[in-house]
Design brief:
single chain, 630 residues, alpha+beta, Rossmann fold, 4-stranded antiparallel sheet, globular, binds 2-acetamido-2-deoxy-beta-D-glucopyranose, virulence, tripeptidyl-peptidase II
Length: 630
């Protein structure tokens, strides 16, 4: 009896279960032959990363970011974050013991605990096939001729399966499909490639001083008056780093910064942002033929306003070389070394892969090289639908980790209202086209762990003392509901109140109307008629691209006051700003909407709305509220 039971137990433990399966071969690829049994496979096992589901991340962040939490502001060190999300010892020992019992010598097994990978040295195809009960085939991509090794399905013992997140190579087709050529690879910094870019209209004949003409021309003085934002920092930028992110080939032009400063902040003539190059980031675009508004407009706008509003104390994260370009993941790799290999690492389809093998490409791979700034503002974005849900979830978890460390991460919400970049909307089968009818929100804004910034305007004929409206000049404020991310707790009351008081006239086939998905933006600031120095002159520029650095500047100065008083940074602000205590610290925007996809979009309304969020900041009130928090 004992023997029988023991045998039975062994059988149960060893019974392999299917772990991953692919149902189709991606278009363009075809299976050409069985892989040769004695070829080597670089077999790697990505271990399950604990605590990375959205609900766990949300509750961890709540403890350090919600004003009612006893540990408000007690942010985590980078080491604590890395170890909290590192693979468990149990996962490592289970996978290693299984490999050993399958006949692999210890010297063929290597473990990287911090990054959560176990690798098998020199596994042959035959060994891998027997280990995983599978068959490996070679696939060829018809257009490029590129080969890829993959299986259809594989199995793991039942007791091992929960400890493994993914195995490479296996079912995935993460092979590089995009044909890379200079200036054509990663879309994020590329003009016209579907990212959020500011728009400009006419050249400015004359700069208008004072605050009398802010309805036709926004200047730093207008913004200071609108948001009662006058503050001189006491700390230096290295004591309280505030970073603006730009993606090569977008780059600022030094003479334009000086031209702007000469007119609006003479003390800053000759002052440059503290330059941090990531993955070969460079501002020497002219050498690559990358100049003009499309290449300089975004960077000039962001830096001219941010530097002026915070008396020069700005760091520039310039990300990506001119050959490959870069994505948000490349920035995150530099800010957190553990992210470089987290859940499989960068995706060659959507991220820059460094070292860059293209001619003249950057030979390094910046991984954990930059200590994150206290506030990080980015005026670029994807359409959520550009990316897979898995890709966005991985990146979104990383924003939660930055929040745990006390970093405020801001993204602009997009310039096409309820439509996506390029005015694209979705069809029922997920395609993005100008004739689509389904709303198309932007990412990373829809990640519940970033703060999304929309745009407002001063109405024609009105002054800085009058209420603003949702921006509907040239651009319309990106807003709406995520198709990927659930409604975070901090936003529940606000979103449900909006939907019940102002039921949108669209069915559940037009947007996720359940009231259970993340709404954007979180707040907003003026995004129309910014006088901006570009190409030696001044132009009027529009976009949530302008709004994000303005909000970021205010938050950076609140950090200045808190740090000077011996307090923590404000970190992830969303759980705080949605509390009733913060209600009076925003100008509620109740007029306008965010048209797109052949509709007038959502309507701004009393309280939260998915057009302007909670409204525009009142700096003095926010400062006071945050100074009262521990
Ligand atoms: C995991 O293993 C490492 C080294 O093997 C050890 O230092 C650490 O204490 C272990 N952690 C736990 C939670 O057991
Ligand atoms: C194992 O792989 C390495 C390169 O990764 C190679 O140099 C070595 O010869 C291989 N060992 C065997 C036994 O094939
Ligand atoms: C602007 O802020 C100051 C404090 O910095 C305050 O005294 C003043 O009343 C505020 N003005 C308005 C119009 O809210
Ligand atoms: C709406 O969003 C929620 C939360 O993300 C999701 O669970 C639900 O499936 C979505 N509904 C539809 C119809 O897409
Ligand atoms: C959408 O609404 C219709 C009509 O109210 C309802 O029958 C349907 O179940 C809803 N679909 C989803 C996916 O929620």
């Amino acid at each position: 009896m004992f023997l029988v039971l023991w045998l039975f137990a062994c059988l149960v433990a060893a019974t392999p279960v299917p772990h991953a399966k692919r149902t189709n071969v991606p278009s363009g690829w075809s299976r050409v032959r069985q892989h040769s049994p004695d070829a080597f496979l670089p077999l790697r096992f990505g271990l399950t990363q604990p605590n990375t589901d959205m609900a766990t991340l949300e509750s961890l962040l709540h403890t350090v970011s919600h004003p009612d939490s006893p540990s408000y502001g007690q942010h985590w060190s980078a080491e604590r974050v890395a170890s909290h999300f590192a693979a468990s010892n149990e996962s490592i020992s289970t996978v290693v013991a299984w490999l050993a019992s399958s006949g692999f010598d210890a010297n063929r097994i290597s473990v990287n605990k911090r990054s959560g990978w176990v690798a098998l040295r020199n596994a042959t195809v035959a060994e891998a096939e027997s280990l995983l009960e599978t068959e490996y085939h070679v696939f060829v991509h018809s257009a490029s001729g590129q080969e890829h090794v993959a299986c259809e399905e594989y199995h793991l013992p039942a007791h091992v399966a929960p400890h493994v997140q993914l195995i490479t190579p296996s079912v995935d087709f993460d092979a590089v499909l995009r044909v890379r050529s200079p200036h054509m690879s990663i879309d994020i910094g590329q003009p016209g490639a579907g990212t959020v870019f500011p728009h400009r209209t006419q050249a400015v004949d004359a700069l208008l001083p004072g605050t009398e003409h802010c309805d036709s021309q926004i200047t730093p003085a207008c913004l200071r008056a609108l948001y009662n934002f006058t503050y001189t920092p006491t700390l230096t930028n290295s004591e309280n780093p505030f970073a603006i992110v730009e993606y090569t080939p977008q780059a600022y032009v030094p003479s334009d910064l000086d031209h702007f400063a000469a007119n609006f902040s003479p003390a800053l003539v000759g002052v440059r942002p503290a330059f941090v190059s990531i993955d070969g980031g460079s501002i020497d675009g002219a050498a690559f033929g990358a100049s003009g508004f499309d290449y300089n407009g975004e960077s000039n706008l962001d830096l001219e306003y941010a530097m002026t509003l915070v008396s020069g104390a700005v760091t520039l994260y310039q990300v990506g070389d001119f050959q490959m370009g870069a994505s948000f993941n490349n920035l995150l790799d530099a800010l957190d070394g553990s992210y470089c290999s987290f859940e499989g690492g960068d995706d060659p389809q959507d991220d820059g892969i460094y070292p860059d093998t293209l001619d003249g490409g950057y030979q390094g791979d910046d991984c954990g090289t930059v200590k994150p700034a206290n506030v990080i503002s980015t005026s670029y974005g994807y359409n959520e639908a550009d990316l897979s849900a898995a890709y966005t979830a991985r990146q979104c978890a990383e924003y939660a980790k930055l929040g745990l460390m006390g970093v405020t991460v801001l993204y602009s919400s997009g310039d096409n209202g309820v439509a996506g970049n390029g005015a694209l909307c979705l069809t029922p089968d997920g395609e993005q086209t100008p004739s689509g009818k389904i709303f198309n929100p932007s990412f990373p804004s829809t990640c519940p762990f970033v703060t999304s910034v929309g745009a407002t305007q001063i109405n024609p004929g009105k002054t800085v003392a009058d209420p603003e409206s949702a921006c509907q000049q040239v651009i319309s404020s990106g807003g709406g509901f995520s198709n990927y991310f659930a409604l975070p707790e901090y936003q529940q009351g606000a979103v449900q109140a909006y939907l019940s008081r102002n039921p949108p006239p669209y069915s559940n086939t037009t947007y996720n109307s359940t009231g259970t998905s993340r709404a954007i933006p979180d707040l907003s600031a003026n995004g129309a008629n910014y006088a901006t120095a570009i190409e030696g002159g001044f132009y009027l520029v529009y976009g949530t691209s302008a709004s994000a650095p303005v909000v970021a500047s205010m938050l950076a100065m609140i950090n200045d006051a808190r740090l000077a008083a011996g307090k923590s940074t404000i970190g992830f602000i969303n759980p705080a700003i949605y509390t009733p205590a913060f209600e009076g610290a925003f100008h509620d925007i109740v007029a306008g909407s965010n048209p797109g996809c052949g509709t007038r979009g959502f309507a701004a309304a009393e309280g939260y709305d998915p057009v302007t969020g909670l409204g525009t900041p009142q700096f003095d009130k926010l400062l006071e509220l945050w100074m009262d928090l521990p």
